[in-house]
Amino acid sequence: MNLLALDSESFPNVGLTWGTWDQRVIKVIHRRMVCSISWQWLGNKKVENMALPDFRGYHPDEKNNRKMMLAFKREVLSKADVVIGHNLVEFDDKMVNTDMFLEHIGPAAPHRAIDTLKICRERLRLNSNKLDDVCEELGIGKKLKHPGIEMWEGCMRGDPRMWSWMRRYNNHDVAPLLTGLYEHVRPWMRRHPNVSIDQAVPGCPTCGAAPAHMKHDGMRHTQAMSYRKAFCTKCRSWCMGVTVRGKTAYRSF
Q1: What is the pTM of this model?
Q2: Residue 198 pLDDT level (bands cut at 50, 70, 90)
Q3: At a CB cut-off of 8 Å and minimum separation 6, what does 97 contact?
Q4: Which of 5, 61, 67, 235 could cross-link 84 (Cys pair, CB 3.0–4.6 Å)?
Q5: Omega before 176 cis (within 30°)?
Q6: Residue by residue, what is the 3-state secondary structure of 14-41?
Q7: What is the sign, positive or negative, of the torsion defined by CA atoms of 91, 73, 108, 200?
Q8: How many domains does the chain have?
Q9: Are residues 45 and 168 in the same domain?
């Protein structure tokens, strides 16, 4: 199963207003759009990135990301079985889908979504659910410092130095931050996709660890039937053990 951790960065809307505070936008001159995407396939240490300057014909005055979105769909997103992100459901997935939609690009192949922000909100009560704050609390690290809105403005002007900064910032959000947070929230997730489903000898459904890592600990009883509870010593997640044709398989709760 292909698990993809990703983070996207976007240009803001550019519009006309009559003032500088709490204003109604009279007209949008350039709509917001994805400008940089970083990703890492779980199990692969390399963090990859694609941004607008990577594509032939790039010019900062051309507010168009069709070539990038088409390449990301074909070369990356359509190969993913599961996509992991922080605020993935409400931001990254929707931003990527919106740009493909507006550029008349069909949707990528369907994938399951693991949203670490959603897990934090549903299972925990942290002082802050921001990626930066949660990762700092866990000792994973902090977001890469950058010049602020000047970085986005510089990229919109085509400044190579700011584009380099944007790529590093985007990559850092994926690893170590997002992938590190995912490992911490993974055992807290309900109904994690079964990553061991295609293994010859099924192991932990959450992390794919070998059956030797599975420790049985009592029974779980439901209205329909009873299951053996199992604990993975590698990722610390719980699951149920189901015996099929004399062999034990594991399923997430």
Answers
A1: 0.92
A2: confident
A3: 107
A4: 5
A5: yes
A6: EEECCCCCCCCCCEEEECCEEEEEEEEE
A7: negative
A8: 2
A9: yes
